[in-house]
Amino acid sequence: MKVLTKENPNLDVDIVIEYRELTPEVEAILRQFQKNDIHVEHRGREFAVSLNKVLFFETETDYVYAHTHDGSYKVKYRLYELEELLPHQFQRISKSAIVNCDLIASIERNLSSSRSVQFYNTHKIVYVSRMFFPILKKQLDERSL
Asked: What is the pTM of this model?
C-alpha cells in the first residue's frame, strides 16, 4: 500500500482518505480514526469504556447494555443507533444483540440450529439468530484471510 501525505492549509477537512478498494489494511487505518470508547452508566456513575473491551451489546427490558469481561453497563443508545455508530468489527447478530467480532473465541451450533457465541476468558454467551448468522460468518471469514 502506498501512502501519500500532503499539507494543504486551504482545505476545510482535516483528513481525506481515498482508496481504490476497501481492504483489511484500509479498514484497520479507518478504525484508528474512529471513536474508540463509549459512555456508559453503572450504579449511578457515568464513565467511558473502551470499545475494544466490549464483548457485545444486548437489549434487556427497555435498555441496551454493553457487556465486558468485568460486567454490564447501561448505554444511552438503541441498537439501531449503535449499528450506525460502531466501527466495522461490531456486527448485528439478532434483534437484540450486536457482537464484537474481534473478541469471539468460538461459535457453537445448538440442537435447535441456533448458534451461541463464546468469548475469550469469560463465561458470557450471546445467541446468533439464523437470519443474521450468514452475515456474521461472512464477516468472520473475511477477517481470517
From this structure: 0.73
